[in-house]
Amino acid sequence: MTSKLNTVGFIGLAAISSLAATSALAAGTTAGTTITNTATVDFQVGGVAQVQQSASDNFTVDRKINLLVEEVGTVTTNVVPGQTNAVTTFQLTNSSNEVLDFALVASQIAGGTAAHGGTDSFDATNVRIYRDNISSGTVGSWDAADTLISGYIDELVVDTAIRLFVVADIPAALANNAVAGVTLRATAREGGTAGSQGAAITETTGANTAGKDTVFADTAGVTGDAGRDGSHSDNDDYTVQTATLTVTKTSRVISDPFNNTTNPKLIPGAVVEYCIAVANSGSADATSVAINDPVPGQLSFSAGTIRLGGTVTAGTCNADGAVGGSYSAPNVSGTIATIAAGATRTLVFRATVN
């Protein structure tokens, strides 16, 4: 997640710089501007110049409401079960020809295919929206310096793009590759009064008037967000990447007092080897894997036989684990530092039949 945010933060800043450089061409003439044009006529009568005649015309530039909400980046945000403050990143651009407020809503899709594939299967909790603070903190990445948004963006200047973070908590006990789709929607509101959300905007119907009319020019966003409705939206998603562990326990007789290691039998005095194999079929490493196994009362633990982190070949534990673990009657225990995604590691120990 961090890598994604850092990378797209650079891209987003470049985009903002580009917008600033071309601002005169993007939104156009400011709404409410009066444009006046005067025509003059010069003429003569009998070769004598007469008083110049003139006529003027003026009109008011109407208001174009246009905005764009875009996911920053092209990949899902990877999370782990129980993670807090998981971040998806968006950019909001005011492409209108007037300073406006923008109401913001972060919602979650209900089923269906998420933005980056996979089926939406859970909802994140404690969903909030933050605005990137470009004067302090880490620009382009969510941090403590960013501003928690209370429902709207205030007085967003024409041709300005801002970074927004949807931040949420991920429930515990989720399966690997579980997906939660997130939608950020912005709706244009009247600007002009700092510190309070402006009124809803209505598109002008009918013929052009002499005043400042309003035209919705936004394109369609995600499903359910039609074009020319004064709002825009985009989706992102969280994808759970976790370890999925499967534990298998087996035993085999190593020797007995009479047959030794040739076809040994499980008689008193026989040595039994236990193998606890932990397989990780998930997509993230499992760390600090603590294994505990009580030795049955009919057996006596063989000191110094615990091996940790070994491998398995064709269902049989290999003798390639490192010496480790501990025994505190009746429990054999050991911790494997890491079981990588797709790997199997073992705890092996021996005991004698009483």
Describe the fold and architecture.
Keywords: Signal. The protein has two helices and 27 strands. The chain folds into two domains: 196 residues, no CATH class; 109 residues, Agglutinin-like protein, N-terminal domain, N2 subdomain (Immunoglobulin-like), CATH 2.60.40. Helix content is 7%, strand content 46%. The longest helix is centred in the N-terminal third of the chain and has 20 residues. A hairpin with a 2-residue loop joins strand 22 and strand 23. The radius of gyration is 34 Å and the shape is rod-shaped. The strands form eight sheets. Strands 17, 18, 20, 21, 24 and 27 form a six-stranded antiparallel sheet that branches. A five-stranded antiparallel sheet has the order 6-8-13-10-11. It starts with a helix and ends with a strand.
Q: How would you describe this structure in keywords?
A:
27 strands; 354 residues; DUF11_rpt; Immunoglobulin-like; disordered N terminus; OmcB-like_DUF11; 6-stranded antiparallel β-sheet; mainly beta; 2 domains; DUF11 domain-containing protein
